[in-house]
Write a structure and sequence with these properties.
The structure is a single chain. This protein is an all-alpha fold and 331 residues long. It has one domain. It is 80% helix and 0% strand. Helix 11 crosses helix 12 and helix 13 packs antiparallel against helix 14. It is globular. It starts with a helix and ends in a 7-residue tail after the last helix. The N terminus and C terminus are likely disordered.
């Protein structure tokens, strides 16, 4: 019975994607899309690509800092970052693509549980940073939101706040009920080990803030290429909301759902022309496809050398050396 469920779920996701695409094309004038693409400024698009590339390098460096495996160079981490970019085009959400990247790295170099733990730490920090940036963007855009009556159309902010509080309470209850099971998990210990290392935690927080800022700037540059006077607060706020929604695997790769959300927020709520908004969304696929093609080409042509020492053995050996030298483990 269980295997039959997977094709059904996949079919439902494709059906949702098709329905979303249909609704989008009912809202958008197709003849107006190409002129908007042709008139786009290429320099902000280049800035978008540079921001994504820089964020990828910082992501690889953060991973290296968290894992602390001296025998693995930056290129290996960067390779798996681009593997994630490749699978991000085909997976139902960015979280699923992240899981593929982490599992592939763990199977290659060992200690999958520690990789899961540090990935959760990075994801959690990224989520908190997004909340801070989103709150700042909301503050910049608050007067215009209130004047436009958007709060009333969203059924008042207190409903959003209530939903967040309810989600936090449910999460706390689940953690409380699973506390015994969680205490036995190796990935939880990996998270606690990072939390106990205050200098590492600070470095990770700084790197995460840089990655999230670059992510926001890449999105802003994308809309700046189509709208020369695009308001930073509005664009940033809508981008973050859409990113958070797309973490839920509604459809395959977010196709259709992403376009519908872009039209809903930027056009229906933000007042931007639908054709230009849709053109900006299509242009956003260009850097994503370039990154995915780079990852796919790297996977295809990369020379796979012999397996290195498993990550667990490597970290244990490093700890033994530190203990023998009388050093602490909070480097």
């Amino acid at each position: 019975m269980k295997p039959a469920r997977h094709p059904l779920v996949t079919a439902l996701k494709w059906l949702l994607a098709a329905a979303a695409v249909y609704v989008v094309f009912r809202k958008v004038s197709v003849p107006g899309i190409w002129p908007a693409i042709q008139s786009a400024n290429p320099w902000p698009l280049l800035g978008c690509l540079i921001a994504i590339l820089t964020a990828s390098v910082l992501n690889a460096y953060r991973w290296k800092q968290l894992l602390r495996a001296p025998n693995l160079g930056m290129v290996k981490y960067l390779y798996f970052i681009f593997v994630g970019h490749f699978f991000n085009l085909f997976m139902p959400s960015s979280v699923a693509a992240e899981a593929v990247k982490v599992v592939a790295f763990g199977k290659r170099y060992g200690n999958l549980q520690q990789n899961i733990g540090i990935t959760l730490v990075a994801r959690g920090m990224g989520f908190l940073t997004q909340m801070v940036i989103g709150a700042a963007a909301l503050a910049l855009y608050f007067r215009e939101l209130r004047a436009s009556g958007l709060f009333a159309r969203l059924h008042a902010p207190w409903m959003l706040a209530g939903g967040l509080v309810l989600a936090a309470l449910i999460g706390a209850l689940v953690l409380f009920r699973l506390r015994g099971w969680l205490a036995r998990q190796a990935w939880v210990e990996a998270m606690l080990e990072v939390a106990r290392d205050k200098p590492l935690l600070v470095r990770t927080a700084v790197l995460t803030a840089g990655i999230q800022i670059l992510s926001v700037l890449s999105g802003y540059c994308l809309y700046l290429s189509v709208f020369a006077d695009a308001p930073f607060g509005k664009v940033t706020l809508f981008i973050l909301i859409i990113q958070l929604i797309l973490m839920i695997p509604f459809s395959m790769g977010g196709v259709g759902v992403r376009e519908y959300l872009v039209i809903l927020f930027f056009s229906d709520l933000g007042g931007m022309p639908r054709d230009a908004v849709f053109a900006a969304n299509l242009l956003g696929y260009v850097p994503l496809i370039l990154m995915a093609m780079t990852g796919g080409g790297w996977i295809l042509f990369r020379r796979h050398g012999p397996m290195v020492m498993s990550m667990g053995e490597e970290i244990k050996a490093l700890r033994r050396k530190r203990i023998a030298a009388g050093e602490t483990e909070t480097e």
